[in-house]
Amino acid sequence: MQLLSISLKRYGPFNLEHCMCSGQIFGWTKFGKGWYGFLNNTLVRLSQEEEKLIVYSNRELVEEDVINFLNLDEDVEEINRKINVNDFIENAIKLYSGIRVLRQNPVDAIIEFICAQNKNIPAIEKTIIKLSKMYGEKIEMDGITFFKLPTIERLANSSLKELLETGLGYRAKYLLDTAKKITKEDNYIEKIRSMEYISALNALTLGEMRLYGVGLKVADCILLYGFHKLEAFPIDVWILRAYPYALKGFIDKNLCNINGFRKTKLGRKEYLLLGNIARKVFGKYAGYAQLYIYMASRNLFGRSKKF
DNA sequence: ACTCGACCTGAAAT
DNA sequence: AATTTCAGGTCGA
């Protein structure tokens, strides 16, 4: 057992709640004041008291791992300055200060975001828990039972019929096929990691290395949250709704008229166009802008009481 | 190349 | 209470 106390004073703004509720990570649960989840295969409880972060685990903890996972070293104040291009973003930065792009395990991100497509947040959490219960390692803490996400090998060795019991629906075949692909190809993860953002995006969605069931949006999530490629700008329905406001002053009227922004889905060409505009405006930190915009959009247009 | 309907399932809206 | 719509999309015709 180990307890770690990390002073947040020497880092920029950090807000655990915002990080956990920004749709960038699934499988973490809040009980009382603590967030429970897996950090590099170790079950931990995270809680924040203003300038202090408390980390608890049954196993040995390395402070470096925690700092790396929460990405405390990243200079968010500098990033915030760079992406603060209009009132909308400035307001969002104020409201959701302390949000950070976490450094998840890439494989976990792949599994999570394939499961997450075209589902709402409660349904996603439910599916992830079912999947973990079915295939993952069981670990207890504070009298609560938790299940780790399955390994990709375990998924590759499962069957479609079995996977369907988790309520994955049509995503089951995506997940199975993807798991097989990743385990079959040598160093799949490392190959993606070594690529530049655009190459990685293309590799995930086209050609030989393509993952079945991974389109542009899921690929962007994987690259941003799993591989920390900050140029990635995942465009989901929430980003699309807020897009004209978030990019105010940077989109010409033609684009506005052509696309109308009334669509709920984008073609490949449109998706890339909107993403490229965001990358032009927000530079290499488009991914951070995306998190702020996502939060702001849920707040503005969402009816869910969770946010 | 581009558009558009189908697709599993469960939550949320009507 | 039953029914329809929608949800952090992707595939294939």
How would you characterize this protein structure?
The chain has 307 residues and is of the alpha+beta class. The protein folds into 3 domains: 72 residues, TATA-Binding Protein (2-Layer Sandwich), CATH 3.30.310.40; 106 residues; 121 residues, Endonuclease III, domain 1 (Orthogonal Bundle). The chain is 50% helix and 12% strand. The protein contains 16 helices and 7 strands. The strands form 2 sheets. Strands 1-5-4-3-2 form a 5-stranded antiparallel β-sheet. Strands 6-7 form a two-stranded antiparallel sheet. Strand 3 and strand 4 form a beta hairpin. The longest helix is centred in the C-terminal third of the chain and has 16 residues. The model has no long low-confidence stretch (mean pLDDT 94). It binds a DNA duplex (14 and 13 nucleotides) through helix 6, helix 9, helix 12 and helix 13.
Features:
alpha+beta, TATA-Binding Protein, five-stranded antiparallel beta sheet, two-stranded antiparallel ribbon, 50% helix, DNA-binding
Protein topology:
Elements: E1 2-7, H1 16-20, E2 29-31, E3 34-39, E4 42-49, E5 52-57, H2 63-70, H3 76-83, H4 87-95, H5 106-116, H6 121-135, E6 138-141, E7 144-147, H7 152-156, H8 160-164, H9 171-184, H10 188-194, H11 197-205, H12 216-226, H13 237-246, H14 253-259, H15 268-282, H16 286-301
Antiparallel strand pairs: 1-5, 2-3, 3-4, 4-5, 6-7
Helix pairs in contact: 4-16, 5-12, 11-12, 13-16
This protein binds a DNA duplex (14 and 13 nucleotides) through α6, α9, α12 and α13.
Sum this structure up briefly.
With 307 residues, the protein is α+β, with helices and mostly antiparallel strands. It has three domains: 2-73, TATA-Binding Protein, CATH 3.30.310; 74-101 and 230-307; 106-226, Hypothetical protein, domain 2 (Endonuclease III, domain 1, Orthogonal Bundle), CATH 1.10.340.30. It has helices spanning 16-20, 63-70, 76-83, 87-95, 106-116, 121-135, 152-156, 160-164, 171-184, 188-194, 197-205, 216-226, 237-246, 253-259, 268-282, 286-301, and strands at residues 2-7, 29-31, 34-39, 42-49, 52-57, 138-141, 144-147.
